[in-house]
Design brief:
Length: 206
């Protein structure tokens, strides 16, 4: 499985992008997107924002699970209390597929328009942080036992639970990053430490 993770701010602009591969079932953590898939991924992600906008009015959960798919690509979403979107595109690939080197220049895309905040207050932040440690420990055991399902099946319950744990851990890291006086939720995240922690979360759960 290859993953493309993106954080989108309230202006529908990407503030962080990262590709990585599965580390389950003997995976080496290297993404195996073709060049064509790399060119399409940002557009697939941006199109899925419409589903996030719709789902936010029908649930009070931050983890929206799998919200969209395009061809063989599946998109899962996580909505923070400040309406920042975490999007994860996961693409199954045949085993022993050779990795394709990424391009030298990063891709970007333009926003559609404004986005409104659907979460009043920030009580969800503290409640999520306090319950993360205990829930992650119990869930990680079941996820680790279903490593083959994660690596091969993007729609399995094991995969959805692994993605939820990944989003939760990245959310905590993101909170620390945006609380820095040198940045903010609308600014691009260029911290090497944040990138390393996202990769570590991907290796741990996906």
């Amino acid at each position: 499985m290859s993953y493309y993770f993106c954080i989108v701010n309230t202006r529908d602009q990407p503030t962080f992008e990262l590709e990585f591969g599965t580390s389950k079932q003997g995976g080496d953590g290297v993404p195996r997107f073709t060049q064509e898939a790399r060119n399409l991924n940002p557009f697939i992600m941006h199109a899925s924002l419409d589903y996030v906008d719709e789902l936010q009015w029908h649930t009070n959960q931050m983890y929206l699970k799998r919200i969209d798919h395009f061809a063989s690509s599946h998109i899962s979403a996580f909505l923070t209390p400040t309406s920042t979107r975490f999007l994860l595109l996961h693409l199954p690939h045949p085993p022993n597929t050779d990795p394709v080197p990424p391009p030298q220049t990063s891709t970007s895309y333009s926003p559609y328009g404004p986005y409104t905040n659907s979460f009043p207050g920030t009580t969800a932040i503290s409640s999520l942080s306090s319950s993360t440690t205990s829930s992650s420990r119990s869930s990680l055991a079941s996820v680790s036992g279903g490593g083959s399902g994660i690596a091969n099946n993007p729609t399995s319950p094991q995969t959805e639970e692994a993605i939820r744990l990944f989003f939760t851990e990245v959310f905590e890291c993101w909170l620390k990053a945006v609380m820095s006086p040198f940045g903010g939720p609308q600014e691009k995240i260029g911290s090497l430490a944040f990138r390393t922690r996202v990769l570590a979360a991907g290796k741990k759960y996906l």
